[in-house]
Design a protein that fits this description.
This protein is of the alpha/beta class and 500 residues long. It has 17 helices and 19 strands.
Amino acid sequence: MATATATDKIELWRGDIIAFARDLRVRRPDGTIGPIVLSPRQERALLAFAARKADGTPAHKTTCLLWPKRSGKSLLAAICILWISLWPGRDSYILANSREQARGVIFGQVQALIDHTPSLKRSWRVLRNEIRTSWGTTIAAIPCKVGTRAGTAVTGLLVSDELWAAQDGGATFDLMAAQTEAATSQILVTSQTSSRTSRVYKFHDDNTKRPAEHRWVDYIKPDELRGSDGRCDAAKHPNPFVTQTFLDEQLAELGGHVFDKFFLNEWGSSGLAMFKPDDVEAIFNWKAPTGKRGSNGERGESWREFARSLDVGGGLDRSHPTAEQDEAAWTYTGRRAEELDEPEPDGWRWRVMFYILRHTAFLRGTEGELIAEHLKAERAFGTFTSFLEAYETGDLVTRISGAETVWPSTQRQHEIYTLLGRVVRERRLLAGNAELDPELKKLRAQLYEFEIDTSRAIPRYGKSGTAADDRVYSLAWSVAAANVTQVATGPRAVAKAEGM
């Protein structure tokens, strides 16, 4: 029997978006290709988008899904744009958030659905940034450049994914939205939460204060995602493939503030404390090994033996010559796997620990001071990798063995603070007594005051204004540098613990 083509089923699909979605094929999390599985929340969103008035025009001109990460927003957007393209003469557009790149996540999802669904593949032609059907419908991906499509009417669907992160501040979206005057045209906005000053929040706020028939906004509230124990519950997540194990792993990796924004759909905030006071205090109670004999008569590990068993990493945050509050901070952190007395519930018997071995700061941080400090660390710990933040370190990187310049982009900062935050929360970072070491006392003070801002596309880290945070940045770079290599002791597989 011949395989049915899209043209054979178009009339059925036009009248039933759920049947259309179930006839599509998608790559599942386990790698297999199969029919799309929708949760009740996802089905409700598709039905709201496809709802029609008596005259056949859309019941809702604008549909807005404000859902958490991994909830299937991109998949639903791809289904919607394919479904609306079943009618001839419908020109639809997918907005990317980059000025340079037209193809985004949703365009790739549309292409994947076509590739995996034989009945569509025969009737749809995929080009570089455009998809065409045999009945005269087009889907185009465009970058956020004002004027890119000026004067082009949207007769199908305009899709915006993560509007709050658009590089042009939403100007291209406004231009294209003004060109959706056709009775058949619709707008679909899919996004996770952002700050309360963003365009995305305005959709939610307007809908709350002034509900209107022409728009349908679905904001999944944090309480809708929490279980009876207060945790994010996979059973309440809109994506049927999200597991509790995955959510728990994300919470451990990201920490409460970032996790709550990404997966509990909290609106972003600034001025949040990065570290809990109890977790900070727990860092500074470590007694370095001395090699003395214990009560059992056995000699303990000496400082030299301990230091040489570690993967050491250095981190330098250098002060700007004209900044009065800045310091040039050097931190050296060691990392190793240590066998647990009792295995963890999953059977894992090793725990990766980090130790702050040296920490100091200089008011100006001249080249000579910084090189001399590093030579002291090398004599104590051997050769190792050091990360030097790019600002003001060009004169040092070639004179310090193992040094690498690192650019503190927002993405890189998110990576190093995700790691630092996790080892602090899990009490896997230790240092000496801060009451006996003035340098550690200053580091502890900065850790107490260090903040995270979740209102941005990528979280921001540090203190606002003129408050100092150089010592914490130095620590974060040193932990990241120590984490680059595999641990010096224990099974090599323990390197998976940090995932970097």
